[in-house]
């Protein structure tokens, strides 16, 4: 399809409505503050009842409206194929969600073949909705967003995501490189929102050594439309498994790329 079209715009509007309803469901099911009310899939990788319920809800609604579109979920895998494919993370930031915290979201991205073209990320506990469509722009609560203008690393705020699949020395090496730049390190436990923060200028960069397609599918169009630089996540294996991602504002991206050893091309 072209840059944008009535069909794609229709899909984005439908996705916004479906994600909003799913987010309301997740809010209603959110555990109270306290110890995690969830099951462990692996170390620090949590699964709640809400994950499955939200994914099933979104899958059913999108199939009813767009039966020819493909669908892939974090929990259910690839359930339908199509040239256009929806990719959902029903609860990104489950470790936060399971403890009654607010930094989590429902994330739904749209791919045209292997190209991310649209996305919706709603963080209902924060009252925020990010949307993007290729060639149309990136928005937070309906207002355009752009990557940060910060170029000086000593003024920068950089987040790095953690994964149990990454050896501790590798994680510490990258984090040390960020701190050696003089940047302020952060780790918020929600990759989709961290990438959205880069798109909106709240962060100057985000690094994660192993992250999955469902975590980033909705954020990739946001980053592109907001003018951020992103490493070739999909080319480097992100379509079929975990891969590395670096996203940053264009002014600091080359410096951050060299520091952490993650190429932008």
Explain the layout of strands and helices.
Blueprint: H1 6-29, E1 39-42, E2 45-47, H2 49-65, E3 70-73, E4 77-80, E5 84-92, H3 94-97, E6 105-112, E7 115-123, E8 128-133, E9 137-140, E10 143-144, E11 157-160, H4 168-180, E12 184-186, H5 191-200, E13 205-211, H6 213-216, H7 219-226, E14 229-230, H8 234-238, E15 243-248, H9 253-260
Parallel strand pairs: 3-5, 11-12, 11-13
Antiparallel strand pairs: 1-2, 3-4, 5-6, 6-7, 7-8, 8-9, 9-10, 13-15, 14-15
Helix pairs in contact: 1-2, 5-7
Tell me about this structure.
It contains 9 helices and 15 strands. The protein is α+β, with helices and mostly antiparallel strands and 265 residues long. The two termini are 25 Å apart. Strand 8 and strand 9 form a beta hairpin. Helix 1 (6-29) runs antiparallel to helix 2 and helix 5 packs parallel to helix 7. The strands form 3 sheets. Strands 4-3-5-6-7-8-9-10 form an 8-stranded mixed sheet, sandwiched between helices. It has a 5-stranded mixed sheet with strand order 12-11-13-15-14, with helices on both faces. The protein has helices at 6-29, 49-65, 94-97, 168-180, 191-200, 213-216, 219-226, 234-238, 253-260, and strands at 39-42, 45-47, 70-73, 77-80, 84-92, 105-112, 115-123, 128-133, 137-140, 143-144, 157-160, 184-186, 205-211, 229-230, 243-248. The chain is 35% helix and 28% strand. It folds into 2 domains: 6-144, Fructose-1,6-Bisphosphatase, Chain A, domain 1, CATH 3.30.540.10; 153-260, D-Maltodextrin-Binding Protein, domain 2.
